[in-house]
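Dear support,

I submitted the protein below through the web form. The confirmation email said the job was done, but the results page showed an empty box. After a refresh the structure appeared. I'm attaching both so you can tell me whether what I see now is the final result or a partial one.
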Amino acid sequence: MTTRGITAGVDGSPESLAAAEWAADEAVRRGTSLRLLHAWRWEPLDLPLVQNPETEAERARVLLEAALTRVCDRRPELEVTATVVPEHAVPALLRESRDAELLVLGSRGHGAVLGFLLGSYGQQVIAEAHCPVVSVRRPGGPGTHLNHLPDHATPGRGGPHRDASGGTEPDGVASGAAKPDGVASGGKEPDRLVSGPEGPGRRAPGGEEFRPGADGEVVVGVQGGADESADVLRFAFGAARARGSRLRAVRAWSLPPLYAYSPGSLALADEAGGLEPYERKALGAVLAPWRERFPDVQVTEHVEIGSAGQVLLSAAGRAALLVVGRRVRRTPVGPRIGSTAHAALHHAHCPVAVVPHP
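What the results page shows now:
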């Protein structure tokens, strides 16, 4: 099954509009299409209020049209579709993640102590999505980067246009649920809407100079061996190439507990000249095949002692994108995103991509 490019979830909030704009820029970088998705389902409330499904459906459609107009004004050359689906947000987004190349969501609120909250559905979607998910902070937040491309980097796609197309009814429509255009179940399918960037230099961790914002680095956390890191590095190298930016590969390490010391492990560390040189050698080995596949991507290797979350956040202080992995596994309490991804999502000042891997 072919993918449908990038999908951005839209709910009308400033955070989701920031995500849609970021997704539009990313789609242009990758030379792919963008799909705006709003999930809405009519469910009467048990309250003494006047409730009109047609009015609520029209509100959902107006919300999505506003997002479409905003994206098209920003990227008129981009092919964009916008669809309202009659179901709850989490199942709709998870179903979308099966076919999408990338899913983009907005983050919601943040503070100096707690970081930002992912919202009612963001964390669940990130924990269960089948494709990489990027979480984008709202405009005006500290360290927010809505990366703009220079005009010469924009591939042509033709001007915007609108078209109404039919299609099968989205799965998961309950009997009696209102259609997104306000037509009761069994009515016509809702219309699909179609329409067819520099700051002063500074020092990055490690002493190298780079420019923040659109020219900032892509930072990727590298844990484990070649197999475990493959999907994460494939995404990170591709993102760096699409931006024409440098990639910083970060590997955090810590002193092993006493019970973990053994003659064999100590011998390996001694051969490498110590624990940190051993970790540097391991990182270099993991990166080697990806350097060959992406010879045009400049790579900086960053090895530092400390917790993975703290080291990554320090290295990504002025990054354009932070990439972390999420192991695909089931636990008694359901899917989890892991401590490193959790720290990045709640405290990073840039968009964070969470990539599922075995």
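Response: this is the final, complete result; the empty box was a page-load delay. The two ends are 21 Å apart (CA to CA).
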